[in-house]
Write a structure and sequence with these properties.
0% strand, mainly alpha, 135 residues
């Protein structure tokens, strides 16, 4: 029970970093597109990238919070975070670089953790046997 509670709290805390970015991107869509375009990306492509980023943030965070398909949710957030970090936080002095690398590490942990911890679906007989042996 405690492990499940900590798992849920951890997933919510991790997803919170991504969820809080969505309203600003939606409310100032044109400003965010201009920010992306200022990095040398054409405006029409910047708009498409932003729409894709918002979709990845919403779907990835939702899957991560729900606890079903945690790996897929974490992978979608990683797909959002990697190019974002390369485009906007390329400097070693940028504190956003350290934050994003830390978040990437947490997402990689969510992707690579044991299957038994990735969802709340009933475990197969083989997984139950492995879990009993392991603990």
């Amino acid at each position: 029970m405690t492990t499940e509670l900590f798992d849920r709290v951890g997933r919510i805390a991790l997803a919170a970093m991504f969820i809080r970015a969505v309203p600003g991107k939606l409310l100032d869509f044109d400003g965010t597109v201009a920010s992306i375009a200022s990095k040398g990306i054409a405006v029409p492509f910047a708009s498409a990238l932003l729409a894709a980023a918002i979709t990845l943030l919403i779907v990835g965070s939702s899957l991560l919070i729900a606890g079903r398909d945690t790996r897929i949710g974490a992978a979608l957030l990683l797909v959002f975070l990697l190019p974002t970090t390369l485009i906007f936080h390329g400097s070693v002095q940028d504190p956003g670089l350290v934050r994003n690398v830390t978040l990437m590490g947490a997402l990689l942990l969510a992707i690579t953790r044991p299957e038994a911890l990735c969802s709340h679906r009933p475990l197969s007989r083989r997984a139950r046997r492995f879990t009993r042996w392991w603990t």
